[in-house]
Design a protein that fits this description.
By secondary structure, the protein is an alpha+beta fold. It has 3 domains: 5-160, Beta-Lactamase (2-Layer Sandwich), CATH 3.30.450; 221-304, Helix Hairpins (Orthogonal Bundle); 310-463, 2-Layer Sandwich (Heat Shock Protein 90). It is built from 10 helices and 16 strands. It has helices at 5-53, 65-68, 153-200, 221-266, 273-305, 316-333, 352-369, 399-404, 413-416, 425-436; strands spanning 56-58, 61-63, 81-86, 92-95, 110-116, 119-128, 131-132, 144-151, 312-315, 337-340, 347-350, 375-381, 386-392, 438-444, 450-456, 462-463. Helix 6 (316-333) runs parallel beside helix 7 (352-369). The longest helix has 49 residues, at 5-53. The protein is rod-shaped, with a radius of gyration of 52 Å. The two termini are 53 Å apart.
């Protein structure tokens, strides 16, 4: 459905108001029409009663002087009246001349409708005993019948005029309602217009702006609060991406510079095969390091773009043993040992691929930075909400480095040495944990060891057993 919100609201409100106004006008018209026709019939009854009271019986017969004056005289256009009078035996005693060949009904006691030519009449029939004077020696007991009718054209014209007034009144009411609704809707939509204007002024260069939360209707406040929270997350995401781009460019510049220098130096003069092989070996090592950096960058970008993957029960002890196989050679070369303290039956609800990457990067970090001849332990504690903890014999990190260790491209060169790592592994761990609903922290322990602890938050991750 297209169109503006103002137009939609106006259409909906008018769709509700219009039938109500039309219904009220119809009901009022019907009530007025009923009252008009009731007055019409009462007037006919009064006229019939007046004419019946004028009929007298004397020794010469029925005195119809008042009735005789009636000749169908017009009371106005469409309002001519007619009458007929019958004796006790049904003999016609009098009729209006204007009836022509038409006749009013005698047996329709109460009301009736009849046509005289093209004119519609509405009338009443009344039976009565004529007045008499006992002193004349005449007693009137016979029942006479009188029918009185009047044209309804004038009354219908009056009702048509009233109907027109009601239609006009309905139109005026609807127009006034439409204006009031339009003004009310416009006033009610002003906060939305302000919000839209504020949003339109926000782009990637102005993500620090927020939509004002003052003077907002209660229905819009939750929307604006969530919108501002979304803008905050977008601002943080854009800041991370800008920093990521700058850091990636910086990290890629070094191996590319080495590669360029080595190749340029090799081309300056003729060299021996061994020198060329050395240059090629250096270039190959640089390319391999750069490829590793690119692969980790791609993995980190995929984690940032995805959210958690599938969830299933994963055997944590077996997963650790499988991941350690890839690190065992490097660990043995540095004299490191692993103590897998996780119970064989321990199960964790998680995405197995993400969990494998988390454990693998934590173990790779421990193998790379634990002091020569040291030890590495890994454990899990369901009661404490610890999904997995990787502990090594040190060295420890300074307090200010404990939080920075998870930043992208951060390397503790002074604290724990450097063995060709790019400072992406722990950043990848943090992103994976965030996608799974976990947290990861680095902790210096009292025995001189350093622990990287992954914890579940709420119902996001569960240690099943």
């Amino acid at each position: 459905m297209s169109g503006s919100l103002r137009g939609r609201l106006l259409a909906v409100l008018l769709a509700v108001v219009a039938p109500v106004v039309a219904g009220l006008c119809v009901l009022l018209y019907l009530a007025v029409a009923r009252a008009v026709w009731a007055a019409f019939d009462d007037d006919l009854h009064d006229l019939a009663g007046t004419l019946a009271a004028s009929v007298e019986l004397d020794h010469e017969g029925y005195d119809l002087e008042l009735l005789a004056r009636d000749s169908g005289a017009a009371m106005g256009p469409g309002r001519r009246s007619y009458l007929q009078l019958w004796g006790p035996d049904g003999a016609l005693l009098h009729r209006s001349a204007g009836l022509g060949e038409a006749s009013l009904p005698r047996s329709e006691l109460g009301g009736f409708r009849v046509f005289v030519g093209e004119a519609e009449l509405r009338g009443v029939v009344l039976r009565f005993a004529p007045a008499f004077d006992p002193e004349d020696g005449v007693v009137g007991t016979e029942q006479l019948t009188i029918a009185v009718a009047r044209e309804v054209a004038g009354t219908r014209a009056l009702l048509g005029t009233i109907a027109g007034w009601f239609v006009g009144l309905g139109v005026v009411i609807l127009a006034a309602a439409a204006l009031a609704v339009r003004l009310g809707v416009g006033r009610g939509l002003r906060p939305l217009e302000r919000i839209a204007a504020s949003i339109a002024a926000i782009d990637e260069r102005a993500l620090a702006r927020r939509v004002a939360e003052d003077d907002l209707p209660s229905e819009l406040r939750p929307i604006v609060l969530r919108l501002n929270a979304l803008l905050g997350r977008l601002e943080a995401a854009f800041a991370r991406e800008r920093q990521f781009t700058a850091d990636a460019a910086h990290e890629l510049r070094t191996p590319l510079t080495i590669l360029h220098a080595a190749l340029e130096l090799a081309l300056q003069r003729e060299r021996s095969p061994d020198e060329y092989r050395g240059t090629i070996r250096l270039a190959l090592e640089t390319v391999e390091q750069t490829s590793g950096l690119v692969e980790r960058l791609l993995a980190l970008a995929r984690v940032d773009a995805e959210a958690g993957g599938r969830r299933e029960a994963v055997g944590l002890h077996g997963l650790v043993e499988g991941v350690w196989t890839a690190q065992a050679g490097a660990a043995s070369a540095r004299g490191l040992t692993l103590d897998n303290r996780i119970e064989p039956a321990r199960m964790v609800e998680a995405d197995p691929d993400s969990l494998r990457l988390v454990v693998g990067n934590l173990l790779a970090n421990a193998v790379a930075y634990t002091e020569q001849g040291g030890w590495i332990a890994i454990e899990s504690d369901a009661a404490a909400g610890v999904v997995v903890a990787v502990i090594d014999s040190g060295p420890q990190l300074a307090d200010e480095q404990l939080a920075a260790v998870f930043d992208r491209f951060w390397r503790g060169d002074l604290a724990r040495g450097d063995d060709g790592h790019f400072g992406i592994g722990l950043a990848l761990v943090r992103s994976l944990c965030a996608a799974l609903g976990w947290t990861v922290t680095a902790e210096n322990r009292g025995d001189g060891s350093l622990a990287f602890v992954v914890r579940g938050t709420g119902g996001a991750a569960r240690v099943l057993s």
